[in-house]
Amino acid sequence: MSGRSALAIVVLAWIAATAPARAQSLQPPQVIALAPVELDAARVAEVGASIEVRVIVDRDGRASLDHDVMEPGLRGAVEDAIARSRIAPATRDGTAIVARARVRLDVRAREVAPAPVIEPPPIEPSFRALARTTPEPTSAMILEAEEVRDLPGLQGDPFRVVETLPGVVPLLSGLPFLYVRGAPPAGTITLWDDIPVPSLFHVAAGPSTIHAARLGEMRLWPGVAPARYGRHVGGVVLGAAAPIEPRLGGEVELRLLDVNGMITVPIDRRHVVQASGRYGYPGWIVGAALPGVELDYWDYQLTADLDDGHGGHTRLIALGAYDRLRQDLTDIETLGEQSDVLLHFHRVEARHVRSLGGGAEFGAALRLGYDQSQLGEAVGVEVWSASPRLWSSFALGFARLRVGADLVASGGRIESGRSDDPAIAGALIREGAYSGARTRTAAGAYVEALLPIPGVLRLELGARIDTWVTAREVQVAPSPRARLVVHVWEGVDLHAAMGLAHQPAVLFLPLPGFADLAVDRGLQRSLQSDWGISLALPLGISLEAQGFFHYFDQVLLPDLYVQDREICVQSWCTQVELDPRARARVLGLEVLARRDGRDVSGWISYTLSEATARAHEGFEFVPGFDVRHVIQAMGRARIWEGLEIAIRVLVRSGRVVGRYFIEPTQLTAQRYEQRLPWFFRGDAEIAYAWDAGWGRLRVSLGWTNVTLSEEPIALECNHDSNGRPEAPCAVQTAPPIFLPSLGIRAEL
Predict the structure, then answer these.
(1) Tens-place pLDDT, residues 229-240
(2) Using CA atoms, how far apart are residues 261 and 275, in angstroms rounded to an integer?
(3) pTM of whole model > 0.70?
(4) Distance CA 493, CA 138 (A)
């Protein structure tokens, strides 16, 4: 690969470009009685009638204040009230576990006589605990966004924590384009509040297009996800919307590159509106490093919750994001001397859910969407879409069932570019992947069944059937799946799962619009399976280990159409023409050790995997997602009241890069492969938070790539007279990206 092409690919990728299953019966902490916070009469007027705090409830039901920062006098009174309260611990399959919860304590004037313990108010406290009861499938890695928001290297975006979990390998360090157990980045779907988000981060390496305060619980299914999240051959990343409480509040944060904020406005006890957004101004910093570059971005999220008080709940949601990069880089000819990169999407959804009694519910939603992507002169796409869906969940004996159907109708246009470099100009387009039809309709129906035998086992079954209709053809594919969890004894579970998934062949990067247009490459298929064990250990430590095997058929691998395919023999050069489809398999082992605690928390993950692929031309090769060893460590420690430090460490072996050449004796294309060196990166953050009386303030200073590590990205080869690379090729590295981050956040 030439230096120019390598740089072009890296720039384009930067611009454009689990964990083990657990399924247990969880019960959150239960309030028995809450004692009031007793203050002097004058102080009561300042604090108000109640105060909401977050607590950690241990296995014995003892609660302690968690992370809430306030002045010593108030904190002492709150801790005293918590000590006098009674809370039953959370349980998992009947065994007490440590969990977090939010409780609201009454505040009243101090009396001479000791105040008795009072019963809780009639309104149930709002819990955001790690352990919670849910009829939904729980075979996923579950994280609270509140817990991971301020970890280093994540730029304050909880969605980025996914790249630190087992089985996940970023395309390049710091970019949120992820291979999940070998599935290409576009094979994994990311949702917020059950709405697919086509572009999760601004200009690829920037902040999230969803405000961090709008995220609640996060889940990753690296394989065999619930049937409702179909039509993808990779994983599922689900970010739940954070609960919206009917009280006036919000936050604002000022950072070096952007300003963001969120506000909640209650209309009454049953109606509330929440809005959030971000505006970025990184152009002056990027322009100083790369003269001729202009960059700006913004996003928004608007939610209105309407409760009719009779079991019906309506939610109106609007979200969108905009990114624009204008560049004048004459040394990157493949993008043109002047080009605009534009990534743009909007979503509007109306959703109604009605409780039918007995735990049953019925839901209906209609979503409208608009997507636009323009990558210089290379590729342009514009898509409009409409997506209605229906679902219902109910109990049938001891089983819990969910049935549903959805439809996505899309139309638009796509334009191939005028660039001569197939790595940038849209090789898939010129080779016919997007030729022909310009509209596509996808319809599907599914059923999910949850069959638990408490304390013994849990069986999750799912099946869906999808149909894709274009002007040329109709394609139908079934996708069954199953997962079994056996509770061996207290704190020890065994599990196994298998499933089949289908997805149309699309560009390997998840960009707005590209996944919604008709293609002529057929369907990609994946057979997913995993098996393993989970252990609950003392000191709040959990250990999970599982093996996995994924097989892909007709998958579009970038190794066959993005990597340099130019072959030169003496003065004659040509491009190797390869079918980008291939078969691939990946076999691996994932280990995760995690500790939840008030003062020290974090996790260490390790993934060992091996992958092979076979092109349609018949030759075998090692795909780029074959990264044998990946170690990730995240940790946070409270070293003083309100003062925290956090670190992140990434260590991984190198991926394989291939170069093509002609074998003179056979006159056929051959592939030279070389593995890149190992890569190490460290991130760090220090933060201090305190109660300012009118709100909570937090000041943070973080460093991404504090180790100034240079990541290996490509090869620079010399060739003999037949065009064969002379081994070993020189390794090209990306410049060390050192990103300091200074942030000031106020929560009201």
Answers:
(1) 989 999 999 988
(2) 8
(3) yes
(4) 13
